[in-house]
Amino acid sequence: MNYQFRFLIFFCFLAFKGATQNLVQDPGFELTKTDYWEISSELQENIVHWRSPTMTSPDILMQADSFQQISIYNYTPRNGRGVGGIFTYTHPTDTKITNNQFAYREYLRCPLTQSLEKGKIYYIEFWISILDDWSEISNNIGIAFSKKMIFTLSHKPLFIPPSVNLDELPNVSSGKWTKVSGTFTAKDDYAFLMIGNFHKNEKIKLKSLNNSDGKKGSYYLIDDVLVREKNAADQVSTSTRINNIIELKKDFQIVDSNIILNEVNFEYNSSIISSNSYAQLDKLFNIINTNQTLRIKIKGHTDNSGVASFNIELSSKRAEAVYDLLISKGISPNRLSFKGYGSKLPIADNTTKNGRAKNRRVEFKIEYQ
Length: 369
Hints:
By secondary structure, the chain is α+β, with helices and mostly antiparallel strands. The protein is 20% helix and 25% strand. It contains 7 helices and 17 strands.
């Protein structure tokens, strides 16, 4: 084997290793200074890498070697012996709430093995589960990054834009592990990772479980945290996809995972797009064109005025007009579909003029990434 060929193989190995290396220190919460079953207030003294960025007390739960399940809580780690545990929401009336106006939340923080590179695309993944001891689940558990280590002498929540976030309520149960994942482009040379709920209370969705004896609040177990450079095979969680495209939240109204084109208008009883609609349609084109893995379903709607059959046909033609425009600008037809729903799916009251105006809309939905 000649020198040049050996060098090429070595270079390819380094490139592959860089693209697959997990940049999280202790992704499974395994590295401890002592052998123990449960850590709460002792987090600082016993865990090697994980810390709390606030004055709250997240948990690291560790199974003893000779037990399949810990006796304190009924759970099984996804891998290894350890898991992280944090409150993502407790009700403001709960006794655990500190003397401020915010609901109590917890976070976990750890340094990365090396800083992210600004401009590179990274894949993020972590797994969540719940305990039988709690009676609710919530959305909005995510991962945020920082360039410098964050620590506050406060119990207040951290409002930092997460790079990946669970927007919807997860399909999760005790004993079942659910993946949360996504991709993002690093906006800085981030060196630290944090896990928790970074949203205000009004953005939180709660669901009661069939556990009337459980304590109120949302508490998640966390395992197998992964951050690495993105590769072509990565598949992200459906519930995180919209959040990963920051421009969507900035430029569009989102209702139940449907992105509304509220600045796209049509001539009366017509599928001709009004000239004042093109600015928002250009933004839509740029998002689809930039995110090449997106597939979009365009959906047309009307109010309940007039004949139902005419409304179905009109809404379909309006959705098709947006479809044709995007194709004319270079988007592949294989990435687009359209359908008209008439007045079947209102988002506002059809008995008012303002409500009818809101119901006359075109929206799109991301089907997969």
